[in-house]
Amino acid sequence: MFSKACEYGIRASIFIAKNSYEGRRVSPKEISKEIDSPQAFTAKILQDLVRHGIINSVKGAYGGFEIDKKDIATIKLSQIVIAIDGNTVFNGCGLGLQTCNENHPCPVHDQFKIIRTELKEMLESTNLEELALNIKSGASFLKV
């Protein structure tokens, strides 16, 4: 459903949020290791997240990536998805067809429309705070 870049972007954002709660900035190397992503690919994803105002980049000896603690609860998963993949997941065809709509539906249009709506609701109602705190408490995990 999401591109690999988007999956990594979500995981990186959660990891950065968790560390930001602990007052830590994290390096691209730490992030790529934690989310099991190639370092160069991770750097590109992090640039996109910085450009969209989701994470902050601090240069220098004590630099790294962070999210302002006050912002963690306001960042929705939908913002990360849109920053990396655009809004295709919210209105694209389930089969990837260019022309698929109510007047010209693909074979799975009606079923996929329901899934798309539920996915959009979940992404718009889930914030980084709840995910980061679940990781921090051990209730969920980012890697095996």
UniProtKB/TrEMBL annotation:
Superkingdom to which the source organism belongs: Bacteria
One Pfam match: Rrf2
PROSITE patterns on file: HTH_RRF2_1 (PS01332), HTH_RRF2_2 (PS51197)
Annotated NCBIfam families: rrf2_super
PANTHER family noted in UniProt: HTH-TYPE TRANSCRIPTIONAL REGULATOR YWGB-RELATED, WINGED HELIX-TURN-HELIX TRANSCRIPTIONAL REGULATOR, RRF2 FAMILY
Designated name of the protein: RrF2 family transcriptional regulator
Source organism of this protein record: Lacinutrix iliipiscaria
